[in-house]
Write a structure and sequence with these properties.
homodimer, Rossmann fold, alpha/beta, 5 strands, five-stranded parallel β-sheet
């Protein structure tokens, strides 16, 4: 790129946003939600909000009784509804809740993103124990997604 | 975050952009430049454009004669000027060229970002050999930066 001077700058913005949320309540999650809502409102573009019921760890999965599993599904659905309502109240016009089950990065990369087709995936950094290092899920999505990825700190 | 319902969405946008460029001319680099210029123009915010003369590999470094090194520095400066001119012609009002030397990720994380203080770092994905995997430099910056990072694809 740097060796070529014959190009023109073109305006660019994103048209379809996917925000991943989870139960970790850290500052980056809140900022990621704010940023997703801001873009969705300003550009009047669709925003999908995905939450994944983590069942990647078989021991944890097996330890969830059907009742507990059902309860967790209900919690996730209720939390997603809260996000959707707040995003809509803020001014985002097309907000879709998306629920997955399994390994979060895998579900988002292999199921949710191919179906929803975002051009920007928005993630909190979920920094670990005081470090700035991003969490495993964010790192895997940043590395392997087909879409652009923003890691919000 | 998901368990808490008492919060309000707040508008959020970035105030200080750092775009990293290099000699790889791929589509993601062009898009990253377009995106950086678009944000800088729309929000009328400063845009730093950094290019690092890679000297991390000692064998390569040592093989660069003083003349060659001087020539490479001149090329990088000229290329950065091209970027700056195009960004300004597009409508970005405060564009700063930033040159580093050394290991690109290290220079950006340890020298350029702490001095320029961006709140968003914009990177091309530089996908490798047909894969979507991001390049090493982008991955390291995405993992370890203090600022938000967007990987443009």
């Amino acid at each position: 790129m740097a060796t070529e001077t014959e190009f023109e700058v073109e305006s660019m913005h994103y048209n379809r946003l996917l925000l991943a949320v989870d139960d970790d309540d850290d500052e980056s999650s809140r900022k990621a939600f704010n940023y997703a809502c801001t873009l969705a409102k300003i550009y009047a573009i669709p925003l999908g909000i995905v939450s994944v019921l983590e069942t990647g760890d078989l021991n944890i999965y097996q330890s969830l009784s059907p009742d507990l599993l059902s309860e967790r599904r209900g919690e996730i659905a209720a939390n997603l509804n809260t996000y959707v309502e707040k995003a809509e109240a803020f001014g985002a016009q097309d907000v879709q809740p998306l629920i997955g089950e399994g390994n979060p990065a895998h579900v988002i990369l292999e199921e949710v993103a191919p179906a929803f087709k975002p051009d920007l995936i928005i993630l909190g950094s979920h920094k670990r124990r005081g470090h700035n290092h991003i969490g495993h899920v964010a790192g895997e999505i940043a590395r392997e997604a087909n879409a652009s990825v923003i890691i919000v700190r």
